[in-house]
Design goal:
Its cofactor is Mn(2+). This is Phosphoenolpyruvate carboxykinase [GTP]. Pathway: Carbohydrate biosynthesis; gluconeogenesis. The chain has 17 helices and 31 strands. The protein is of the alpha+beta class. Helix 12 packs across helix 17 and helix 16 packs antiparallel against helix 17.
């Protein structure tokens, strides 16, 4: 075998004529070194073409690794079922291998990079025996864009190749950019299930190869990612969380930009004025629903730019410009339905890979929340017969859909703008039953960074007037920041100094506040557009606000609630700032900051002290 071997089985051999791959000596040498380590049967230099994807799909269907769905209902769509032990990110096996442990910080799993490299060389030795190694060139963001970055993923999973073809700008042009001298990030993946053992004996293939032992390893100093043992999404699609957040956050710190776990939307007012908003929400806090919001107030439109990740860099005019570095959506299926997110449902009409959802008898898919009533009979995500009386979910709670962003009927015309879009506002939000009002504006950039650093959700329902146990998720980046979280806050403070008067305004939102009876006070979903309307009014200087110790809240009558069945008491509860509860939360924040020691930026400690002072005075 040589690195010019390029077939995908006998049927495909005629389709791949030289030249293929790249002439770049560094890339070819890297691939050769990895081939010597992992020992695949053959190497394929992927080109991202439709023909290539069709061949891989046919191969996966023939091997039982993908189920072809009924083309009448879901054209060109497929179902994958994973191993039950490989269904989600493995945070306890995710490592940040910075040179110094303190650079990883207390919220990351740190390992000495020298020790980890020795360990990885051992587990990757022969890991691709009997398999094909695929070389996947990809761009995060528009090809050649000023905010975009390049990468190459080595993988032995056709599922990963197909998914990367949807989630990134993958193809031959990336090789050309690398040959022209553009930098690129090295990413290596193996499912860890060789088909030939150390003494040459073959073993049977399985529908979803993986390994009980898993490693998701980031080397931020050398911009490398190594992933072993898992074929699932964020563990295996290394362009996503591993590159786009963990590695990119370090690149952004070093180069003066931001890599964030944020959605991006474009809001257009009845007057035709357009604004771009980025928003960070932890899981289960309404992120995808906001990304695909359908406003309930007349004349307003919301268009989707991205649902998960935003890269933001200062432009020549001093403003902050953002791209969605991804080309697709890798969304959670359960809970996505006509009543909750009709835009997402409409996006999935075809050309979609579904993972761990249920299969209907007519060859379509189903999951909890897609429809109000479940079908009478299904094949569940593990391939077992299922009825509504089975007593278990038909789709895995973390089942997914992978689909091109361009298919979204609500996609903005500038979603893949080469230069990115200018950001007017940044939102932070958690899932809080108490304390946090529906919306509050930060008084300054530093105050906004404090809001982002203290995002939290309540693990359990809290009694009225008390603070529940909080799950901290600063900037919604807790599992995804590639370096010390306190240093990350410091980088945000520094970005405020760089942007100066051009800095976007910052807001905190909370759709989930509850009344004494445990019911939600705010209707949410499309009515969240009313909050966006007030935010736009603040940007334009037309919406009134009143100052509270926690920030600027809508003045009485400034928030449009016409047509909503909200009593004066309910509105008061939505914006109530209970000083005793907030003082208790200050103590919790003080304790939270303590774990980061003296690395917490002085600006954030000053914001905490100011908040406490104004609460005590009030």
């Amino acid at each position: 075998m040589t690195i010019s071997d390029i077939t995908i089985g006998t049927e495909a051999s005629a389709a791949y004529a030289e030249p293929r791959g790249t002439t770049d000596p560094a890339l070819r040498a890297w691939v050769a070194d990895l081939a010597a380590l992992t020992k695949p049967d053959e190497i394929v230099w992927c080109d991202g073409s439709r023909h290539e994807a069709d061949l891989l799909t046919k191969q996966a269907v023939a091997e039982g690794k993908l189920v072809k769905l009924n083309p009448e209902w879901r054209p060109n769509s497929y179902l994958a079922r994973t191993d039950p032990g490989d269904v989600a990110r493995v945070e306890d096996r995710t490592f940040i291998c910075s040179t110094y442990e303190e650079d990883a910080g207390p919220t990351n799993n740190w390992r000495d990079p020298r020790d980890m490299r020795r360990e990885l060389l051992d587990v990757f030795d022969g890991s691709m025996k009997g398999r094909t190694m695929y070389v996947v060139p990809f761009s995060m963001g528009p090809l050649g864009g000023p905010i975009s970055q390049l990468g190459v993923e080595i993988t032995d999973s056709p599922y990963v190749v197909l998914s990367m073809g949807i989630m990134t700008r993958m193809g031959e042009q990336v090789y050309r950019l690398i040959e022209a001298g553009e930098p690129w990030v090295k990413t290596v993946h193996s499912v860890g299930y060789p088909l030939v053992d150390g003494v040459g004996r073959r073993r049977a293939e399985v529908e979803w190869p993986c390994n009980d032992e898993k490693y998701i390893v980031q080397f931020p100093d050398s911009r490398e990612i190594w992933s072993f043992g898992s074929g699932y999404g964020g563990n295996a699609l290394l362009a996503k969380k591993c590159f786009a957040l963990r590695i990119a956050s370090v690149m952004a710190r070093d180069e003066g930009w931001l890599a964030e776990h944020m959605l991006l939307i474009k809001i257009t007012s009845p007057a035709g004025k357009a604004y771009h908003v980025a928003a960070a929400f932890p899981s289960a806090c309404g992120k995808t629903n906001l990304a695909m919001l359908q406003p309930t107030i007349p004349g307003w439109t919301v268009e989707t730019i991205g649902d998960d990740i935003a890269w933001m860099r200062p432009g020549d005019d001093g403003r902050l410009y953002a791209i969605n570095p991804e080309a697709g959506f890798f969304g959670v299926a359960p809970g996505t339905g006509e009543s909750t997110n009709p835009t997402a449902v409409a996006t999935l009409w075809g050309n979609t890979i579904f993972t761990n959802v249920a299969l209907r008898s007519d060859g379509d898919v189903w999951w909890e929340g897609l429809t109000d009533e479940a079908p009478a009979e299904l094949i569940d995500w593990e391939g077992r017969e299922w009825t509504p009386d089975s007593g278990r979910p038909a789709a895995h709670p973390n089942s997914r859909f992978t689909v091109a962003a361009a298919q979204c009927p609500q996609i903005s015309g500038d979603w893949d703008a080469h230069e990115g879009v200018p950001i007017d506002a940044i939102l932070f939000g958690g899932r809080r039953a108490t304390n946090v009002p529906l919306v509050a504006q930060a008084r300054s950039w530093k105050h906004g960074v404090f809001m982002g650093a203290t995002i939290s959700s309540e693990k359990t329902a809290a009694a009225e007037g008390t603070v529940g146990e909080l799950r901290r998720d600063p900037f919604a980046m807790l599992p995804f920041c590639g370096y010390n979280m306190a240093d990350y806050w410091g980088h945000w403070v520094k970005m405020g100094r760089i942007l100066g008067e051009h800095a976007p305004q910052i807001f905190q939102v909370n759709w989930f506040r509850k009344g004494a009876d445990g019911s939600f006070l705010w209707p949410g979903f499309g009515d969240n557009s009313r909050v966006l309307e007030w935010i736009v009014g603040r940007i334009e200087g037309t919406a009134a606000a009143v100052e509270e110790p926690i920030g600027l809240l809508p003045a009485p009558g400034a928030l449009d609630i016409d047509g909503l069945d909200l009593s004066d008491e309910t509105v008061a509860q939505l914006f109530d700032v209970d000083r005793d509860s907030w003082l208790a939360e200050c103590d919790l924040t003080d304790a939270y900051f303590a774990q980061f020691g003296d690395r917490v930026p002085a600006a954030l400690r000053a914001e905490l002290a100011s908040l406490r002072y104004h609460l005590e005075r009030g």
